[in-house]
Amino acid sequence: MGGYVKRKMLVTTVGMRTEWGKLMETLNEGGDDETPLQVKLNGVATIIGKIGLGFAIVTFLVLTIRFLVEKALHGALALATEPPNDGLLKRPPVGRGTSFITKTIWRNTIGQSIYQLIVLAILNFDGKRLLRIGGSDATEVLNTLIFNSFVFCQVFNEINSRDMEKINIFKGMFDCCIFLMIIFATVAFQAVIVEFLGAFASTVPLSWQFWLLSVLIGAISMPVAVILKRIPVENKNTTNKQHHDGYDALPSGPELA
């Protein structure tokens, strides 16, 4: 594993000023695309369990979401399905000591987690009254709505995580068929779980109004992301004098002539 990382760093450094070299650099920091999702998912799920929402979102459902987001999304983004572009050449070199989880990622992660916790907590503690959910299956409907909303938050955050800093996260998205297929497959699988696997997944079918509400709650993650990206964070310049790419400059000067 160590040898693999070293070879990866070598290719990145040697090809630093070429498009494919920059692409290798993005592969080296590939965790940046899916790490925020994993951090948000794990953090939100943990806090949800502590405040009582764990009863609303059963273990099977949380593991299902984590599998979809962590494995499927990681497989697509980590392999860099999008071809290299000229914008990659504008990125500064990444040092070997650079952390995968930057301050920008922490900003986006904490902000999105707070939003999801607030919305899901409101639904859990006062959802029946606010949405006028009644009947013998009111609890099951509310739990399914919470689960569905949670999933759509992650779906829209997959799109948000295409770029940690830029506002326009749709640029080039529709040119990436694999990414679009993952989004479609995630939503389709979620629909199957909610509508047809109730006995197995402890869900009940939702009305179109609740489906629309779930999508809306997830979609609000996008304007939340825009607001978060407007918050400045202090990032260390990777090209400053402390940066070291693993190579030592050859000695030179008139004394060596």
From TrEMBL:
Residues in Cation-transporting P-type ATPase C-terminal domain copies: 75-231
Pfam family, one: Cation_ATPase_C
Keyword Acetylation attributed: no
GO cellular component, as recorded: plasma membrane
SUPFAM superfamilies according to UniProt: Calcium ATPase, transmembrane domain M
The protein's name in its UniProt record: Alpha carbonic anhydrase 4
Record InterPro entries: ATPase_P-typ_cation-transptr_C, ATPase_P-typ_TM_dom_sf
Keyword annotations: Magnesium, Membrane, Metal-binding, Transmembrane, Transmembrane helix
Organism: Pisum sativum (Garden pea)
Transmembrane segments: 47-69, 176-202, 208-228
GO molecular function, one term: P-type calcium transporter activity
